[in-house]
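> run fold BACON domain-containing protein
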Amino acid sequence: MNLKMLLFASVSLVLFASCHNSDDPYMTLATKTLDVEAEGGLFTVDLSSNVYYRVNNDCQTDGSDSHWAVVDSHETQGEITKFTIKVSENSSTSSRVGAIRFIGDDVTPLKLVITQKMIVPKGISPTTESIDATITESSFKVFGDKEWKAVCTDADVTVSPANGVGECDIKLTFPENKTFAKRTIKVTVTIQDDTDYTYTLVQDAFSGILADWDLKSLTANTSGTFADDEAQSVFPGTNGKYLAPSAGSGKIEYWACDRTGYVAQTAVCERAVGGNGDPYVSGAVPGDYWYVYGDMKGTVIPAGTKIHFYFVTKLGTMCSNYWMIEFKDGEEWKPALPTLTLQESATETLSGAPINYSATITYNFAGMLLDNKNNGAYIPAEGIFTTTKDMDEIVLRFGQAGRLCLSGAKYSGKYIDCTHASGQTRFSAQHPSNPETGEAIKEYNEHVLLEIVE
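> ok
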């Protein structure tokens, strides 16, 4: 039989012819399988044939037109063609299987099945991670098939499992980071016949809520711990009343100053709670303060800590427009917002007495917005301050800075010399009023908040 052999350049389709003295068509492979290590290499396979045949390559790399195993070269001597198969390195952690097919005329097709092992990873992964301060679990993987052990010198870190053989997921458990510095946890993994590997976990410094009062959800609690059954009679003081937070650690108190010199009218100092959770005080006068406390349950809050505060307030018509928000820095009270000064004066008091009052006041919160009934509107107070002293707790206070009644309201310009129900101050669960019209927005999900920020 005098047949001509044809070879196409493509690695995926080759056409051959071989000669054989027999008139019977045939095609045989010396081996039908190749088991290849991950690193790949060159391999030879003999094919005997006396017919034309095509070579198809089914060893395609996923998602591409390339092939991870190809016919690199061939050499024919008589009826035997020696194929050299080139297998690329398998860098994946999954094994792969493909085939090179030989399709001849008038004979049964043959295929060479190539199975390549996956790469056996070594070491650990990942080697470094960063997590939030509140996260208390982490994990990493040990690779290979050798014996290993994992060690962490931190007493409050649990490594599970701490030793084993072969590939394994290692879980770490540890407490939240309640400090104000980033924490680094290191685990050393020693693998037999290999080097040591280190897993490094960086846990962020604490930032977040010190104390948070979800006012509407606290309505029942507020009624039980803050509201008075009757007017306060002992001054100065808080009358033993407070408001516990819904999250974090702290309290809110209202401190009433000595009422000597004030004319008592309809309210001396009465604490109550509104239907939507608003803690409020009637009979407020200059010299009283709201105090808002937040702490870290015994952990010192270092100098340089940034504190964000937020609340919504509403002022009564017998209160000042001008207030001061301060924070305690060591033993010193400092403004929590930038301050302004204002000259105010009056010739008549709330009780109707004449007075010759003039003073320059310093303030950093002005409740100038009124509603459509000329009462104080709902106004947000928000800011960030930075401590300069180490503190066991953060303390914010909020008190009247001026002595004249609410501007634009019924008693505008009169000097505050009496206690009255309209001398009212509150923290509110209601959304801030429309800043242009003073119209109330009756949604009740506002909070009083103290939190640490980066």
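Residues 229 and 271 are 8 Å apart (CA to CA).
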